[in-house]
Amino acid sequence: MSRRRAYPQPQYAAPLVPTTPQFNQGYGAAQLAQNFNAMNLQQPAAAADPAGMMNANMPVQTNGNYPQLYGAAPVQPAGQLAQPAQYAQTAPQYPAAQYDNTYGADANAGVAGGALPAAGYSYGAGASPQLGASQSLPLNQLYTTDLSKELPPSISDLSLPPPPLVTPSTAQLIPSSATANAPPDYLRSTLNVIPTTGSLLKKSKLPMALIVRPYNSLRDENEDVPVTKDTIISRCRRCRGYINPFVSLTEGGRRWRCNFCGLQNDIPTAFDFDELTQRASDRYQRVELNHSVVEFVAPKEYMARTPQPIVYIFIIDVSAEAINSGMTSTVSRTILESLDRIPNKNKTARITVIGVDSSLHYFRFKDGLDEAPEMLVVSDIDEPFLPSPEGLLVNLEENRKIS
């Protein structure tokens, strides 16, 4: 025994019986679909122009088997039935009412006699017009290619930026922030669609990974990354995630919920205080709540040891084939020309040079002296060792003249 859900039937002044529309009698489904755009359900009955009303005894123009204009329908209770002659004289206007409730009557049953169903109901199965149906598009539409019908995309398309990512206004803490999403230069996924399950990802045979590039430029001045004004860093106690534009504030702004693991964390007391001006500041102006790529100034607590100087090790092929082909001289000249372009603002960068053939060739320098370096050869390449405890790593600024 099958059961069907019963929906309430709308109450009209007179029973509506499905009939075949005749001349000056009523609408059919096809005629209703053609004239639906001319409706104005929000227009009250008294606002219609009486001069524009047609008398039932006046001749009308016909289009096929159905008239284009119909005679005045009998007066029905307000809010239930609309007269077609009223909206024939008005400009097209879409109804603002939502048509959520449905009933299972036939499409012609609700339109017999030239009357339309009341606002708040929609047509049953088989009706052509969809009243009030909102055709909402997805936020991020996918761009697909059918390889069986179209040519495969060009390989040069891989260098193009991905389509813009649109997020709901409620997804980020500050809806007006245009920099909440990370640019594709810093963070980009190998897939534009994330599979719902792990088994689906395994069946697709596609690699899923994130390409993270925190530094896109060799120099800081060439990279437009906002830097925090203080050393206040708020991180999640569980997953160690940083506070970001996609967290949510709870308990009146005293705590924030991590968007990675959902744990609530306390907001630091100095989060709303500007250390430079010694005044209270607006937390919504902080760069970590407006930008996804931020440069944090690490406090002393983050330093387990004193910052070490940067070290560059140049390994050059000095075999007979490399020397005869000119590769060794070309590499040496290129390294020499690049020494002045190495970032060395604090003058602490250190370098060393190692030559490789059947042995290892180390070069020992003497700091502060303009003497030529001494070459030390290590023949044991299976268990290499440092031939000298000092002089292999030298300060670039102090020994630049030797090179």
What can you tell me about this protein's structure?
- With 403 residues, this protein is mostly beta strands.
- The chain folds into 3 domains: 94 residues, no CATH class; 139 residues, SH3 type barrels, CATH 2.30.30.380; 85 residues, 3-Layer(aba) Sandwich (Rossmann fold), CATH 3.40.50.
- Helix content is 9%, strand content 13%.
- The strands form 6 sheets. Strands 12, 13, 14, 15 and 16 form a 5-stranded mixed β-sheet that branches. A 3-stranded antiparallel β-sheet has the order 7-8-9, with no helix packed on it. Strands 1-2 form a two-stranded antiparallel sheet.
- Strand 1 and strand 2 form a beta hairpin.
- The longest helix has 12 residues.
- The termini are far apart.
- About 26% of the residues have low confidence.
